[in-house]
Amino acid sequence: MTQRQLYLAAYDVSCPRRLVAALKLSRAYATGGQKSVHELYLTVAERTDLIEDMSILLDLDTDRFLLLRLDPRSRVLTLGLGLVPADPDYFYVG
Fold first, then answer.
1. What pTM did the predictor assign?
2. Any idea which positions bind Mg(2+) (predicted)?
């Protein structure tokens, strides 16, 4: 069985076109995240592919990419309370 590890991927891209491409590439591997930080469960091969693809995509002089492996023994800390989605009695479209 292939062992997956949890990573955080973050990027800072100066060109809007490369930014969209970096977003699409990150989301192809992501299980969650927002804007330019994503949670990824990766195998060693997927990690290598992601790093290679990002290095081709990004301008190494102006753009940045960070891939950080998270310790699986770490405790999860959540902030705030989640609310169950609820539909209102009616919707106004106009």
1. 0.72
2. 12
Would 79 be classed as within a structural domain?
no
**How many domains, in total, are found in the chain?**
1
User: Which residue, among 6, 14, 21, has the nearest Cα to 60 in the 3D structure?
Assistant: 14
| CA angle in degrees (0–180, nearest 5) for 63-67-72 | 165
The answer to the question of residue 25 being in a domain is yes
Q: What is the pLDDT of residue 65?
A: 93
Q: What is the pLDDT of residues 16-59, one digit of tens each?
A: 899 899 889 988 888 777 777 888 889 999 999 999 999 999 99
Residue environment code for 41-56, b if the CB has 16+ CB neighbours within 10 A, otherwise e: ebeeebbeebeebbee
Distance CA 94, CA 65 (A): 43
Q: How far apart are CA 70 and CA 90, in angstroms?
A: 44
Query: Which residues form the domain of 63?
Result: 5-69
Q: Does 48 reside within a domain?
A: yes
